[in-house]
Amino acid sequence: MEWLTSLVDLPAETLVKYLAGTVGVALFGSAVAFALIPSPPKIGVYSQPNKWYYLKYWTFFLLLKVRQRQNSRRAKGERGDAGYGKRSRNSVEDMDRIQELPKEHPKAVDAVYFNGGSKDGCYFVGATARRHDNLIQTLLYIRFPDFGLLEMPSLPDTCLLGEKPLSYAAGGLHIEVVEPMKHWRLSFNGLMRLIRCDGSRDEVPVSFKLDWLAYTPHFDFDTDLDQSILCDAIAREVWSRERFEDLKLAHQTHYEQFGEISGVVDIGGYGERRLQVQGVRDHSYGNLRDWGDLHRYAIQYIHLDDGKAICIGSICMPRTMTRLIIGYVFHPSGQLERVKSCDINLHELGEDGNDPTDFVINFIAGNTKYHLEGLVLDRPIFYMGWDWESRIHERMCTYKVNNIPGWGISEWCYRNYTGRPNTFKPKPDKTDA
């Protein structure tokens, strides 16, 4: 998820000029000097505020304000200039479509992801990430509580070859836009591995054509994240030219939108089953996605019984920010509340690699305090990257938020060092993804 870690894509020299012009040479010089005196990070990873935290916080706050003004004076949607207050494209039609993978960036990405759950315990997760050399990182899970879990036979590996150019398609899974920001279609035809409730396994033919329909506006991380959580994340870190260059390099456009997936799943030998689940979809594109950059993340997507849609999580990518809180709440009316603070501390929550099956998170969005309780029902694991750089736990959960029941996916990522097993397809020499 590194697309979240940078909203500043200006050259380091320009950043310095903006800072100096905004807060004065003396203030900026002091901020940089004191920023080089870090507090010891938690367990050697998670940066902590030092006594100069507030100076850095307000310096970066002013920088964001300057950038916001600069963006308002430039051509709207100018490419290569995405970030805080500035969308990456002129229109939603240009955003919500297949994106070009620049040839000069071997780790470029264009990825779509869909998930959903229901009150009766059904869950769906499907995703494709387009990379260079026809690599499509692909996953698909469907859970019926009285039947079992269906998964692609290639899992836990996600590295597949694309089925046709310029498409989100591999391994029998096809994902396509019908109407931008409103309607997508997901289809599949092929074998899936059935893991029954008693633990026995088999491969069965599966086919479906499902429709995803939006029920919230989209949330664009280039423009919609709360400013205070960005300032907090940056103020915790040591400031350097390299840090700001990495923020620029790691930027990805990323947006999310809640919707409902519905349709019929035909399971060979077992008949048809109706699927109707609520959850999030996202779209990410940018010049760099390196799964080895991530240390951890824990992100919860929730649909509540009263119609609220919630995202809350934390991301640790030492290259840029080691504690970036993300999140929002959409009300049924479409009203948006941005998450301003959260008590997630990843080093206190499953840092040993064993993610807890029950957990509690408190956060503030808008002016409302939220108390979240989560319970994991199932948690298939898959790996991302040719060298399996990341291990991801796709946790299918029930929730209570301020005592209102809900359901959804809790996705937890860990840096993985086991490497790619020899039993799986070897990595091509020219592939970097």
Contiguous helical run count:
6
Strand-and-helix sequence, N→C? HHHHEEEEEEEEEEHHEEEEEEEEEEE
% residues in beta strands: 35-45%
Tell me the helix content: 10-25%
Distance between the termini: 14 Å
Strand arrangement within the widest β-sheet reads: 1-2-3-4-8-9-11-12
Task: Tell me what you see in this structure.
With 433 residues, the protein is α+β, with helices and mostly antiparallel strands. The chain contains six helices and 21 strands. Helix 1 (12-23) packs across helix 3 (53-72).
Keywords, please?
433 residues; eight-stranded antiparallel beta barrel; 15% helix; alpha+beta; 6 helices; disordered N terminus
How does the SSE layout of this entry go?
Elements: H1 12-23, H2 25-35, H3 53-72, H4 92-95, E1 109-117, E2 123-130, E3 135-144, E4 148-151, E5 159-161, E6 168-170, E7 173-179, E8 183-196, E9 201-214, E10 219-220, H5 227-235, H6 241-249, E11 252-267, E12 271-286, E13 296-304, E14 309-317, E15 321-330, E16 336-342, E17 358-365, E18 368-378, E19 381-384, E20 390-401, E21 404-415
Antiparallel strand pairs: 1-2, 1-12, 2-3, 3-4, 3-5, 4-8, 6-7, 7-8, 8-9, 9-11, 10-11, 11-12, 13-14, 13-21, 14-15, 15-16, 16-17, 17-18, 18-20, 19-20, 20-21
